Every structure is written in structure tokens, then in C-alpha cells.
Amino acid sequence: MLQRDYILEIVGQFVEGVSDALRRAVSGDASGTSDVERQIGDLLDLDPATALSLSPDSLVTMMVLSGMGDSVASYVCYALERLSRIYGREGDEDLSGLRRIQARAVAESFSCDPDDVPEELAALDAELFA
User: Fold this and answer.
1) For the packed helices 56-66 and 93-110, what is the interaxial angle rounded to 10 degrees?
2) Are 113 and 106 in contact (CB under 8 A)?
3) If 0-12 CB within 10 Å is exposed, 13-18 middle and 19+ buried, where does residue 66 land?
């Protein structure tokens, strides 16, 4: 029960933080994309620069080792996929491609779909990415 409460709390913090950061990123504020990446790192309890520089397989391995991968995979997958879109719009094909393959690796390893939107982020997604 305690672990469930902890996961709900960190997911809630992630949803709040990533929502604000994605809004800023979509509006062209460069700090938004770095804040989305920071939110992903915080959710995984990893240094964001380290976490998001990992190969897709290594990122998945770190999620498995954290013991929380199953609980947060759909959120990580969603955020990585949306970052991929934003970087693509900005013309940064390298980062866009890396985030896309990281999202796919998370999706394949944890049986989630990169196109599925976590319920808590559905309204935001409709606002920003529809």
C-alpha cells in the first residue's frame, strides 16, 4: 500500500510538471523541452542528462532495475513520444529520432503503446497535439 501511494504521488507530480513543460515547449519556449526531460529523469529517479542520453535498451534496463518501470512506463513513453514530435517540429531530427526510438523501446518492453495517452494527460494532449 505504501509503495502504491508513493507511485501515485510521483505520477501526480510528473503529470503536473510535464503538463506545464509541454505547454511551454509547444509554444516555442526552449526551457520547456529541457523541463520535460528533467521531469522524465525525476520520475525515473535518474539524472535527466544521463537518463536521456542512454541508448533505448539501456534506458529500458534502468527502468527495469528501478523496480518501478511497469508503474511509470506509459508516462515515460508518452513524454518521450511527444518530445520527439516537438523536436521534429523544431527541425532537430537527431533528438527527435532518439526520443522516438526510446519511446518505442519503452513501449515494447513494458507493453504500452506510444500513441496511447495516459488518462491524466488526455485533456492536455487534446489541447496541444490534436
Assistant:
1) 40
2) no
3) middle
State which amino acid sits at residue 40. I
Instruction: For residue 124, give Cα distances in angstroms to 59, 100, 110.
Output: 26, 20, 23
Radius of gyration of the chain (CA): 13
Reference 17, options 33, 42, 39; nearest CA is: 39
Comparison of pLDDT for 17 and 3, the residue scoring more: 17
Alpha-carbon distance of 91 to 18, in angstroms, equals 22
Percent of the chain with pLDDT over 70: 99
Mean pLDDT (the chain) is 94
Report field, pTM of the whole predicted structure over 0.90: yes
**pLDDT band for position 105 (cuts 50, 70, 90):** very high
